[in-house]
Write a structure and sequence with these properties.
With 414 residues, this protein is an alpha/beta fold. It is built from 16 helices and eleven strands. It is globular and about 65 Å long.
Length: 414
């Protein structure tokens, strides 16, 4: 049994991260309830209350479902699928038919149903074969499939433009991630065309082929996308191998972009420096020392490495348990191993937090459980947004604002 989101989950959430697309889940209603609840929370749409009262939505705001029953596994559910496509086709610019793992065994001809409904130009079939893969692989491959289907054309290349890759609606406060990274790029004289898979529209993704560069914010979620853009359109990827988490990693991120694009980094570095100085003043005001505090992190590799380094080197905190969230990414993992070897701390890798840890940084729900059960002093929400909270204030974990958010959660109880 998977206890973390897997590739199947990633496929669905990648499509749901496109503003005018929808997943049609071919499977039983029980397979989509958690998915529908989560996508309705992280990316609510204005028409949600209307859709929940219509066929195939069964009271949920997102992810229509064919709702197959037990006898359909014997006799097939092609008619259910075809009828559902006929209803859904007027509600989205792009449709992904996703078979649940069980429904994929039936063998219904999903492509035939798409063709008979005249949707061959705006619909694809995404099977459940990624269910054994990590979350990032499912998301990355699904977005490449969409890009190939919509056939972007590089007909009007634009100098000084970028796409942001690797962000997704599963990132904490993903909209603020787009804004923060977009602002840093703007300070460097770069215009963002598309935040692929994180609020972008289908038309916006078609226009993404005209960008000069691709900036990878979360590299483990965008390797295949970066390869596709490079091979098809010659777009240069900008990838430092880890994410801009913490002030120093954000400065590394800016300098890497400057190196590749030739743009002046000074305004962007000044922006980060203003927040660094503000953070220092706030730490003095709080009279709060973190020296010697223990911390545990369960996060993606490209977050785990720079966050561990920042907390250890700058905050003088001590790692006691580090886990890479079940997502492989060799470069960031190797950087972390080298860092821990220098610190003689390799024993903390792949460990669960001890009975008590000062700061536990993980998904929002788990962080809340640790804090409320008094197994940690502070629980910090890093990923897979908590189902209990919504962000009214900007709370990304990336960039200068992300550094301030992490400090806020470490220092303040409320």
């Amino acid at each position: 049994m998977n206890v973390k989101p897997d590739g199947f989950f990633g496929v669905v959430m990648a499509i749901e991260g496109i503003s005018d697309s929808t997943v049609l889940l071919h499977g039983p209603d029980g397979c989509r309830k958690n998915l529908a609840a989560l996508t309705g929370k992280v990316y609510p749409r204005p028409d949600a209350n209307i859709k929940r009262m219509t066929p195939y939505y069964y009271g949920w705001p997102r992810i229509p479902c064919t709702g197959i029953a037990s006898n359909d596994y014997v006799y097939g559910a092609y008619e259910r699928l075809s009828e559902a496509l006929g209803y859904v086709k007027g509600t989205a610019s792009f449709i992904a038919v996703v078979n649940s793992p069980g429904a994929s065994l039936i063998g219904d001809n999903c492509q035939k149903a798409i063709d008979e409904n005249g949707l061959q130009d705006i619909a694809v079939v995404l099977d459940a074969d990624l269910s054994s893969k990590p979350l990032n692989v499912g998301m990355d491959n699904a977005l490449v499939t969409v890009l190939k289907k919509i056939s972007p054309r590089r007909d009007a290349p634009r100098k000084g433009t970028v796409n942001i890759l690797g962000n997704s609606v599963l990132q904490k406060d993903w909209e603020s991630v787009n804004e923060e990274i977009g602002h840093i790029l703007e300070l460097m004289g770069l215009e963002t065309i598309s935040c692929v898979g994180a609020g972008s529209s289908i038309q916006n993704m078609r226009e993404s082929a005209n960008a000069e560069f691709n900036v990878l914010v979360c590299p483990e979620y965008a390797q295949e996308q970066a390869r596709y853009y490079k091979e098809e359109f010659g777009i240069t990827p900008i990838d430092m191998g880890y994410s801009p988490v913490g002030f120093e990693a954000t400065e590394d991120f800016i300098m890497k972009i400057a190196e590749v694009t030739g743009k002046d980094p000074s305004k962007a570095l000044e922006y980060v420096d203003r927040y660094k100085k503000k953070a220092y003043r706030r730490m003095l005001a709080a009279r709060y020392g973190t020296t010697g505090y223990s911390f545990a992190i369960d996060a993606d590799p490209c977050v785990l490495y720079p966050l561990t380094k920042w907390l250890s080197d700058n905050m003088e905190m001590v790692p006691v348990a580090l886990r890479a969230n079940g997502i492989p990414f060799e470069y960031a993992e190797e950087k972390l191993r080298e860092y821990l070897e220098r610190k003689e701390l390799t024993q903390v890798m792949d460990q669960m937090p001890p009975e008590f840890t000062d700061v536990v940084m993980t998904d929002g729900n788990t962080a809340q459980i640790y804090e409320r059960s008094q197994h940690c002093r502070r629980g910090v929400d890093l990923k897979f947004p908590s189902m209990m909270n919504v962000e009214f204030l900007s709370q990304p974990i990336y960039g200068a604002l992300g550094s301030m958010y992490i400090l806020e959660r470490i220092v303040n109880r409320f």
